[in-house]
Amino acid sequence: METIHIYHTNDVHSHLDSWPRTRSYLQERRAFHEQHDEACLIVDIGDFIDRSNIFTEATLGKSSITLLNEANYDAVTIGNNEGITLAKEALNQLYTEAKFNVIVNNLKEPDGKIPTWAEPYHVYTLASGTKLGVVAATAPFPDYYNNLGWKIEDPFTRLHESIAQARKEADIIICLSHLGLHSDERLAEQERDVTLIFGSHTHHVLEHGKYINQTLLTGGGKYGRYIGHSIIHYDGMVQQVETELIDTTTLPPERGEHREVAAQQRYGEELLDVEVFETTRFYNKEWYHYSKLSHFFAEALLDFSGADCAFFNAGIFLTDMKKGPVTALDIHRMLPHPINACIFELNEAQLRDILAIIERAEEWPRRELRGLGFRGTVVGKMLTYHFKQQDGHILVNDKILAPGETVKVATLDMFTFGWFFPALKALPKTYLLPQFLRDILTIYGHKHFV
Fold it and tell me: Which residues form a coiled coil (predicted)?
């Protein structure tokens, strides 16, 4: 009976405090299995990078590829943090030094060709001669990918094709899925030839996996808390599949791990410690009020977007903006979020609805928020600029907006997913990519002060 070991990580999001012990563990396990003539693969299921991390931001993710190389990964797929938080040129450069296969089958060039750094599937020939086929897909965000110059395709259609192709060459098929648990369940129902689906994106934790038909689903949470370990027992047919999660907090500390993580932080800080402009005054932040900083950012957002008015939350600002020289590091600490701006064309009734929702949502300012790209603490006060309700009318730049008349409204992409303003999810919108909020502020600061 052949035993195949597959170790997997997912949704690390550049949380690297436990990385030294994770790397050491993976290296030790590979050496152990090789000594015992057992096959071993190490894979990552996407969102390894997160540009809210200074080390990652300073290198546009390339530092993460070095880490994966050091841990001897065999294959990765991309998550949305690789796919839509990097400009196309940066993503095309991300894996130039990779010593592993990058597998994703639903991301294409506009002409339909797969990127030069990726492949739709890969077949690994193990020492025993058994062939292990690996397919992979990433979550489709067409508004983002299309804007960035990519073509993102339906993952289920492309996976069906890749599975059929890999099946001609491989004895066993596994899938690296950055699609989320619900999609993994659907995939398991549709594709009976897949032995294992390694899950991610929704940060779900499946301690011992979840069976759907003959397919075992895995999920290892987020932030490097767990390493997944799956085992396939094979003797010409798959006889048994099992999976477990290793809690990295229980692994023995790696000697010098704190120094290593601190050195990464210092390296990133040094690269970002470059002056971008010099202010003539101090700009304070406030989470529960308007502030000098929110006014300045509103000017930046309106200037960059060309919109008539804007709204955003005060909780995006994590620091004040000091008087004097301001560096890229200062701006990153202030606005670490991988959040983009976007524009809507809204009419009088739609603006009225937004104002009504804000007025009713008394609990929003102190609500703690995780996800949607937000890397702060609380939502903070919802701030509106250049539009208001007065005497029963909606005023934009102090002019009454007539029924049916539309204006351009700038906001943050975190408000387009339906959680805060449900109606915005279905409305046409234009994402302003690839710039993050910090880039928008930097561009305006350079224009304003230099």
Answer: none
Report how far residue 99's alpha carbon sits from residue 429's, in angstroms, rounded to the nearest whole number. 39
Nearest to 354 by CA among 391, 395, 404, 311: 311
Buried b (16+ CB within 10 A) or exposed e, 68-87: beebebbbbbbbbbbbbbbe
For 176-233, the pLDDT digits (tens) are 999 999 999 999 999 999 999 999 999 999 999 999 999 999 999 999 999 999 999 9
With beta carbons less than 8 A apart as the criterion, state whether 364 and 382 touch.
yes
Query: Is residue 75 within 8 Å of 101, Cβ to Cβ?
Result: yes
pTM of the predicted structure, to 2 decimals: 0.94
Are residues 413 and 301 in contact, defined by beta-carbon separation less than 8 angstroms?
Answer: no
Neighbours of 105 (CB within 10 A): 25
* Cα–Cα distance measured from residue 322 to residue 304, given in angstroms and rounded to the nearest whole number: 22
Residue that the structure tokens 């906001």 belong to: 411
Amino acid residing at 109: E
Three-state SS for 201? coil
User: What does the angle CA 297 – CA 81 – CA 312 come to, to the nearest 5 degrees?
Assistant: 25
Burial of 279 (0-12, 13-18, 19+ CB in 10 A): middle
Name the fold adopted by 2-266: Purple Acid Phosphatase; chain A, domain 2 (3.60.21)
Q: 2-266 and 274-449 share one CATH topology? A: no
CATH 3.30.300.30 is right for the domain spanning 274-449: no
* Region of residue 261 (left: phi > 0; alpha: psi -120 to 50; beta: else): alpha
Q: Where are the domains of the chain?
A: 2-266, 274-449
pLDDT at residue 450, as a whole number: 76
Torsion of CA 28, 30, 36, 38, to 10 degrees: 160
**Rg of the chain in Å (alpha carbons):** 24
CA pair distance 346, 298, nearest whole angstrom: 18
